[in-house]
Every structure is written in structure tokens, then in C-alpha cells.
Amino acid sequence: MRFPERMMANRDLVDRAHHLRRWTSPALFGLDRALVPMLQQFAHGRLIDAGCGTMPYRRSIVRQLIAYDGFDIRPNTPDARYVGSIMNMNEVPSGEYDVALCSEVLEHVPDPAAAIAELHRVLNNNGVLLLSVPHLSRIHDEPEDYYRYTRYILTRMLEDAGFVVSETRVTGTIFSFLGHQLSSIVVLSTWHLPLIGYLMVLTNLLLIVLPARAFDWLFRFLNGRLPLGYVIRASKTESPSGPTSGTL
Q1: How many Å apart are CA 208 and CA 186, to the nearest integer?
Q2: What is the spatial distance between Cα 43 and Cα 62, in angstroms, rounded to a whole number?
Q3: Measured between alpha carbons, how far is residue 92 from residues 33, 64, 95, 99 in Å?
């Protein structure tokens, strides 16, 4: 089961109120705090947004890029250049891009190793992958919800594909996870109402988002045991290294 009201609200926020989007959930707030600075620092040249959805990060970085090309399994935005599965991006030439963004997508891919291999292929040598995934998340976008990841399996999968992991950031803890559930109810049930939707976003920021983020900071020792999710920066090496020996 999909949630069209969530997609519609997200698209509307991206189109009309981009600056408010991170205020709608402590999970989004934490993801933006981790991912946007990486994008602003490392996104250059040609970028492919693999699983682009409504392209929520394009406005933040498009001026520093030569090209921002979206790739998604469904045409959620008319600006997406490619439509297909990121497990087989055969329309995209090898070595075409300097940066690949794959944000909150890999949990919906039945063969994540194939997707990571394709991300490696479409990047040029020394290209950068910026990847985000959830660790704590409710079941969503059924039936295409398959995995939750630890930083250890992500590192192993990326290294097996030929990436070198340079940086890993935690996006929040269980407090942002719980706050996200409340925020989803508050924002999605009111966003369509003129003026009231904006007022409820502000109320949500003050009463749910900021308190949840404050608890994340106070109990940041939970980053290692109850992480909300991860943002990872990895660089492409010239050829895949093959399976990693040993165990984690």
C-alpha cells in the first residue's frame, strides 16, 4: 500500500515551500542536517539522483552543478531524465557522472548489491557516492519495503563493489523516530488546509521536531545502538575489489 497523501504533501512542499520541508519531521530535519552539507561540499560536475522521487535536494545544489539528472522507477516528477530500476541502469553510460546521490532508496530495492554495483559503474574514477538509508523505520510503501541497514553491512557492501567509505554520519536516534510518527499525523492531516497547514508545520517544529532533536543530542550515546539512519560518503576506486574476507 502506498500513501499518495504523503507523496502529494512532499511534492507540494518541494514546489511551494521548500524551506519548510525539514520542519515537517525530526527525521527529515536530521537527514537534511547530515546530507545537505555533504552535497554542498562534494556535489560538483554532473550528478545523478538515483531514486530521485520529487528531487527535494535539487534546489540546494543545482547552481554548483553542470547537470542534475534524476533516475526513478516511476516518473514522480517530469524533470526525471531516466525511468527504470537502479539495479539495471543500462540507459546510463559507464563513468558518466561525478556524483551519485541515493537517498532513502536502498531499503526499497530487492537486490541492493546490484544497485550499488550500478552506482559504482555510472560514476567516473574518483567519483563520489552520497548514500542515505534508514535503520529505524516503520514499514512503508508496501509491498516494496525490504531492508533495514547497519553501518557495518553498508560498509561491507560498498567496499565489495569497489567503493572506499570516507565518512558516516548518524541522522538521529529513537527519539526522532518516535517524533516522526507524530509529525506524520500532524502534518499530513492538515497540510491541505489553507493557512492552517502552515500553522501546524510551525507548531510541529516547536512541539515535536525541536524537542525530539534535543533528546537526540542529550542521549547521543544511543547513536551507536539505536540510530535512526545513516548518511555515507564513499569514493569510487578504479575497479571492484571483490568480496571482503573475514567477518564483521
Answers
A1: 10
A2: 9
A3: 30, 22, 9, 13
